[in-house]
Design brief:
By secondary structure, this protein is of the alpha+beta class. It folds into 2 domains: 63 residues, Orthogonal Bundle (Helix Hairpins), CATH 1.10.287.180; 78 residues, Transcription elongation factor, GreA/GreB, C-terminal domain (Chitinase A, domain 3), CATH 3.10.50.30. The chain contains 3 helices and 5 strands, in the order ααβββαββ. It has a 5-stranded mixed beta sheet with strand order 3-2-1-5-4. The longest helix has 30 residues. The chain is elongated, with a radius of gyration of 22 Å. Keywords: DNA-binding, Elongation factor, Protein biosynthesis, Transcription, Transcription regulation. This is Transcription elongation factor GreA. GO terms for molecular function: DNA binding; RNA polymerase binding; translation elongation factor activity. InterPro entries: GreA/GreB_C_sf, TF_GreA/GreB_CS, Tscrpt_elong_fac_GreA, Tscrpt_elong_fac_GreA/B, Tscrpt_elong_fac_GreA/B_C, Tscrpt_elong_fac_GreA/B_fam, Tscrpt_elong_fac_GreA/B_N, Tscrpt_elong_fac_GreA/B_N_sf. It holds the Pfam family GreA_GreB_N.
């Protein structure tokens, strides 16, 4: 995971513990005041939300605890690695594609961040600017040339 990804997880954890958890606890207190808990949909809803929040807190804490933060500066400047942006051109295509390779927990393909476990990233990791690479994806193979690593 990148340092940026770990920082986002730490911010999410802080938000869950200091804002979300207290909000849910307050909803539970209010719902208890409505009477019979066996027929109290507000109480059930708040308890369900509490379960989701607590589960996410545990999940994020574990992700942070076992995070392996990768420093993209520890590899050659033109080598594709986690944390770096790579631009490549598929053979027969005039439009270059650019992705940042990140840890699985922080991937967001719409934002141009792909998981280091994805087929495209697996085909590019360890390669250098100028390398021609054949990448096998579920949709078939593609031949690309790495044009930029930053």
């Amino acid at each position: 995971m990148t340092a940026e990804g770990k920082e986002k997880l730490e911010q999410e954890l802080e938000d869950l513990k200091t804002k979300k958890r207290p909000e849910v606890i307050e909803r539970i207190k209010i719902a208890r005041g409505f009477g019979d808990l066996s027929e109290n949909s507000e109480y059930e809803s708040a308890k369900d939300e509490q379960s989701v929040v607590e589960s996410r807190i545990s999940q994020v804490e574990e992700m942070i605890r076992f995070a392996d933060v990768v420093d993209a500066n520890d590899v050659d400047e033109d080598e594709v690695s986690v944390g770096k942006k790579v631009t490549f051109l598929e053979d027969g295509d005039d439009d270059p594609e650019t992705y940042q390779i990140v840890g699985a927990a922080e991937s967001d393909p719409i934002a141009g961040k792909i998981s280091n476990e994805s087929p495209i990233a697996q085909g590019l990791l360890g390669r250098h600017m100028g390398d021609k690479v054949q990448i096998t994806t579920p949709g078939g193979s593609m031949d690309v040339t790495i044009t930029k690593v930053e």
